[in-house]
Design brief:
Pfam families: COX4_pro_2. It comes from [Roseibacterium] beibuensis. InterPro entries: Cyt-C_aa3_sf, Cyt_c_oxidase_su4_bac-aa3. Keywords: Membrane, Transmembrane, Transmembrane helix. This protein is an all-alpha fold. The chain is about 65% helix and about 0% strand. The termini are far apart. About 0% of the residues are buried. The model has no long low-confidence stretch (mean pLDDT about 90).
């Protein structure tokens, strides 16, 4: 069998954290734009 050098909690995850933060920011922005479009259509559509 292969040697297992994995030790929990020692991996550098700063890039993963940055990626997740960017994904969440983009998701929130898209949700806000979608809500604004729905509100616009609800107010001005006939």
């Amino acid at each position: 069998m292969a040697d297992n050098d994995y030790k929990r909690g020692e991996m550098d995850i700063t890039e993963k954290e940055k990626t997740f933060a960017g994904f969440m920011k983009m998701s929130v922005n898209i949700a806000i734009v979608a809500i604004l479009i729905v509100l616009f259509l609800a107010i001005f559509a006939r």
